[in-house]
Every structure is written in structure tokens, then in C-alpha cells.
């Protein structure tokens, strides 16, 4: 009986041999979760699907899938090196893992010792996240135009988070050292699990219904995609979208981005960062107060200096507008005007006398005997010059007149001769064109009964009346015989035939 009792180590060793013998090399597909990379270089993660989970370890000495130009599983050669699965490994990735099933004795759990890994696509949660992201983006949840600015240094803040989590401690620690003092009202809610999303929605609705806060802060610490999934529920994103108060979201770490983050009016990288975005550092506020105090002192000093200057101006103006000063100024002005009037009168009298003296001197100079003798001599010289120049001028004018008369007679004769020749040409042309001139040489003009000229015997049949015009009169006759010219008739017929052929062509 005692031989049948096994120690934990012995049983574990037998199970390990059984598992490793039964599953020496298997392929498993699942979604990566709980990924950790300690300093040892080993990689620990969990493969999961909808119904089960499998712990996996990828030891450092088995991580031989570095970036290279071919796929070690299929042998496919690439144009350029591809990143290794180790570099791409992250939570939410759907992967194919190959290795052996072994038993980890210290914990008594079986695990997959990974030897090969191939990405197979995004996990179910990641796919659901992308689908919801596309849906909400189409509805305008993420539009920048609808996002509202946060109030500066808010005094009333509604905080939605777990009262027992690390996020509230990080947030409150920063809040206690920043801003000018604010009241924070906690709306407790679950932040993980199946009941987390409805609890967050209720907390958002309560904060909006109370209307006490200036801003809503939604925070949670870091975690895996499953841990943060409540903030990827469409109901939570819809509650953030419909919030009347601006919402600041600080969920997870900087690399964690949820639908609530993208829908919120502003996203913080961490809960601590959310407090930094809400309130300025208190030292900065102290500095602003000091700067404001210094500016107030400078403004007061400038105001006092300005008031002193204005007071001095008013005192000077009051002294200037006193009745005694005004009367003294009037006497000064009167004396000044009196002196100016005297100087003006003296200057006018002096100018009149100077002008009279100039006119007298000019009159005496103009009517002096020497001046009159000079003008008389100049008149005599001009008369002598005119008497000497008149005969020469008349002779030259007469010569130019004779020359012009001679040229006019010559031009007149040439014009008459040219006109006579033109007249002779016109008379010759007129006599040549006279239709009655040939009658003097024995020709006659024959007209038919209608008065038209006869150019052919065909136009005057036998018995028709004709009139014959001679040089010295006219004759009336009747055609008794018609005798056509044979040669002219033939030529006429040929011409008519040629004319008809020309019209046909």
C-alpha cells in the first residue's frame, strides 16, 4: 500500500513524461494575452480562445526567428527582410505557435514551450475593437469639431474610477499638489469585468444629472486588452459622447487606447497625466501670483506718477487762469499792440516819403534838357535811316512784283496751250464717235418699223416697212426682196452651234 503512494514530485514527473510523450510537437492557434518580457529574455504569455487558455513560454535560446529574407516555416523568399514574430508579438495578436507540451513542476501547471511562432492575424477582441472603432467613427464620435475645451483650473471635478485601484491614488496625489484647490466628488464604479461597463455608464449619467461638476474625469490603471475591455464597450463610448459636461479620459498607460479615450473631449496618457492636464503646477500659480503682484505694484506706481503729473498741470493751469494773471496778460497784450501800432505808423510814413522821393528823382531825370536832347537826336537818326531805306525797299519790292508777273504770264500761256491740245483731242474723239459721220461717206442707217437699227436681213422680212437715214435726209421704203449673204449665214450658223455646245458643256 505504501509503495502505491506517490510524492507530489513523483506524480508531477510522471505526468510531465506522459504529456511530453503524448504531445512532443503540436501547433496551437490562439490570441495573445498577458504578455510579459522580463530581463531574463524569456517571453511569457497566454494563448486563449472563447473557451480556454494555455500558458506559454518562449525561452530565449529558442528565439531564433530573427529578421530575415525568408519564412522558416514555408520557405518563402522575400525581396527584403521581414520583422520577426518576436518583434511583432503583442497582446491581442492572433498567432500560430509550435512546440512541445510540458509540465512546470513548481506551479503544477502544464504549458507550451514555444519553438516556432507565426502571426495569424488579430484576435477576436482586437477585431471587435476595430469593428466598433469604424462604427463609432462613422457616427462622428471621434470628430475634433465636437470636442470641447476643458475649464482652466477647475474647482469642481467629478471622478469616475474604482475606489480601491491604484489609479485613484495616483490621481489624488497629483491633484493635492497642483491647482489652486479643488473639490473632487468620487463616483465609484467597477473598471474591469462584465459589470464594469454598466457601472461606468451609470456613473457618467449621475455626474451629468447632478450638474455639480465642471468636468468629468474617467481614469483607470494599465492592463491587458481584456482588462480594459469595459472602456471599449459601445455603451460607455455612447455615454461619453452624450455627456453634457466635458470628459477627460486617462485610461491605462500611454500605449493603451480605448474607444472611451477617443470619444472623450481630451485624452490623458495616464491617470497622473490627467491631473496634470486639469490643474497647473502650484509653483507656477505662485509664480503667476508673484508676477501679478509685481505688475500691480508697477501699475500703482505708474498711476500715482500720472496722477502727480496731472495735479501739477492742474495747479499750473489754475495759476495761469487766475483773474489777476488774466488782467496782467491783457495789459501786456494792450501795451504790445500799442507799440506795434506806433512802429507800423512810423514805418508807413517813412515808406510813403521814400516812395515820393523816388518818384521826384525819376521825374526830374526823365524831363531834364539832356534827356530831351538825347531823345530828339535818336528820333532824327531813325527818320534819316527810314528815308534812306525806303527807296531800296520800294525797288526790291517792284523787282519781286515784276518777276511774279512774268511767271504768271508764262504759266498762263502754258495752261492755254495745254488746254487747246486737250480740246483738240476731245473734238477728234467726239467726231470719231459720231454715228452720223459715216453717212457723209455714203453709208446709211436702216431702221425697222419699231425704230430700232437693222443689223441683219433676217430682221426685215419681205413686205416690212423700213426707213433709211442718209447724210442729207431720210427715205421711207418697203422690203420687196431679201437676199442673205451665203458666207455670213454659214458663219452665223457655226457660231450658233458653237454657242449651244458651250451651254451644254
UniProtKB/TrEMBL annotation:
It is found in: Cytoplasm. Residues 141-477 form the Exonuclease VII large subunit C-terminal domain. Its EC number is 3.1.11.6. Residues 6-117 form the OB-fold nucleic acid binding domain. Residues 282-317 form a coiled coil. Keywords: Coiled coil, Cytoplasm, Exonuclease, Hydrolase, Nuclease. It holds the Pfam family tRNA_anti_2. GO terms for molecular function: exodeoxyribonuclease VII activity; nucleic acid binding. GO terms for cellular component: cytoplasm; exodeoxyribonuclease VII complex. It comes from the Bacteria. Heterooligomer composed of large and small subunits. Belongs to the XseA family. This is Exodeoxyribonuclease 7 large subunit. It comes from Desulfovibrio desulfuricans. The lineage of its organism: Bacteria, Pseudomonadati, Thermodesulfobacteriota, Desulfovibrionia, Desulfovibrionales.
